[in-house]
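Lab notes, practical 5.
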Amino acid sequence: MFWRSGKSGSSEQQPAAPAETGSSPESVDIPAELRVDRTAVSFLAFPHPGPLVIANTTVVCHQCGADREWMVIKTAEGMCIRCRCTRTWPEPRMSAEQFEALMGPVAAVAQDFSHAVRFLGYDGTFTGAYLQ
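Output from the prediction step:
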């Protein structure tokens, strides 16, 4: 999930540099016209359904006690974690490399943060529910 930086009237995506294809069966060669330039976005985010371990510690929401179903967010300021109960906090222990290793292929492009939160189900609708 990506958020575009700025308020552009165009919905056209700019192609990114060719992705390196790994040897794993999950690797997908995405056509250039469907790629998103990761340097031209304000935020990157993805849902992480299972437990999330950072610095040998399993992430737990201090508001509702959830231990899985995270939205992992990368901004220019650093990494953040969002729970389904809508609590969002910075996660300085997560490196950019760990974020990139966890993030899969781009599934959607959102207009803004609130649209992405609703699209991924982290707007409070599924508070207390595990979707797996």
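Observations recorded by the TA: The two ends are 20 Å apart (CA to CA). The helical segments are 96-102, 113-120.
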